Amino acid sequence: MNTIKKKLTIDDIARLANVSRSTVSRVLNNNPNVNEAKRKRIMDIIDEQHFVPNSMARNLGTGSTRTIAIFVGEITNQYFSEIIRGAEEVAISQGYFPLICLIQNPGREQFYIEEMIQQRASGAIIVSSSIKNAASIRQLAMSMSLVSIQSELCGIAPLYYLDTENQLGIYNITKHLIQLGHRNLAYLSTLPNTTVLEERYAGFCKACSDFHLSFAEDHVLHGYHKEDISVSVENLILSENRPTALCCCNDFSAGIAYQKIRQLGLRIPEDISLTGFDDLPIATIMNPMLTTVKQPIREMGRRAMKLLIESLDNAENPVSGTVLRFPSEVILRESTAPPAAI
């Protein structure tokens, strides 16, 4: 008669090794503060019994699951996928489980916030343009450590806020267009209009002001979804006062503009120059390749996760409200050139 083998628990390992449950937990979490003889005894039992630890039980003394939630607003945008890749690399290397929470609308945002609180996640990285549920994000901040990457948290100060030189980056790329000879410029932004986007638009305005250029009100475009951006670009291209250069707030919107410009039969950069911001992989796939502002997106993901884990390991000395800004750099490629009349 076959018998069902009982699944080994941490309590069983502690009993077999003649150690406490907390000692087993420290070994499972690679804590260096364990006697080497005890560590070897525990690991030998784990190997012999083919024990697979339950992630929900790893941090017995902390009430945490070693899960880190990564809240992102749009998975199809390469900006988010690059940050996720960087954050995931660090989390896995440190024995944490990264969980992607796609919060493309207020309902999903509320669901994931409640779920992460209930599941006792160790911390969260917020990588969304903005948070909609102010009360819920406050509750999340009270339950776990938060790090933000270019995201506004309804007045909540995260442990760290990571950003880049938004205004300077757009200023420099607008300056590049002006120095090429462009005098009729347009600017494309996305919605909602967060601080990050406001800083980038301010950089465009400052460059125009410094070089004594004005731009028409209808040359400042806004759109959130692909369809909105596409329609705005089409209206701009078909207008009587068509610009010679279009400066986009990010590579995502620049990619949509690129498609629409080509569909309308115009050439880049012969008929219109085009720039972006981010330096996503899509920038080098375009033909011609996109002139853009580079920000170290994947490194921002890595740093955010590293800082969050360090804060969890030093919970007795928390920090709050630290802002880290990464440098931006203009990457010159083939999508910009002097206007045809020059």
β-strand percent reads 15-25%
CATH architecture of the largest domain: 3-Layer(aba) Sandwich
How many strands appear in the DSSP assignment? 12
The major beta sheet can be summarized as: 6 strands, parallel
H/E order of the elements? HHHEHEHEHEEHEHEHEHEHEHEE
CATH level 1 class label of the largest domain = Alpha Beta
Mean pLDDT: 87
Discrete helix count = 12
Structural class estimated from helices and strands? alpha/beta
Summarize the structure.
The chain has 12 helices and 12 strands.
What does this structure look like?
This protein is of the alpha/beta class. The protein folds into three domains: 10-57, 434 Repressor (Amino-terminal Domain) (Orthogonal Bundle); 67-164 and 299-328, Response regulator (Rossmann fold, 3-Layer(aba) Sandwich); 166-294, 3-Layer(aba) Sandwich (Rossmann fold), CATH 3.40.50. The protein contains twelve helices and twelve strands. The chain has helices spanning 10-17, 21-28, 36-49, 78-93, 106-118, 134-143, 166-180, 195-210, 226-237, 251-263, 282-285, 297-313; strands at residues 67-72, 97-102, 123-127, 145-149, 160-164, 185-190, 220-223, 245-248, 273-278, 291-294, 322-326, 329-331. Strands 2-1-3-4-5-11 form a six-stranded parallel sheet, with helices on both faces. Strands 7-6-8-9-10-12 form a six-stranded mixed sheet, with helices on both faces. Helix 11 links the parallel strand 9 and strand 10 (291-294). Helix 1 crosses helix 2, helix 4 (78-93) runs parallel beside helix 12 (297-313) and helix 7 (166-180) packs parallel to helix 8 (195-210). The longest helix is centred in the last third of the chain and has 17 residues, at 297-313. It is elongated. 42% of the residues are buried. Keywords: DNA-binding, Transcription, Transcription regulation. Residues 5-31 form the HTH cro/C1-type domain. GO terms for molecular function: DNA-binding transcription factor activity; transcription cis-regulatory region binding.
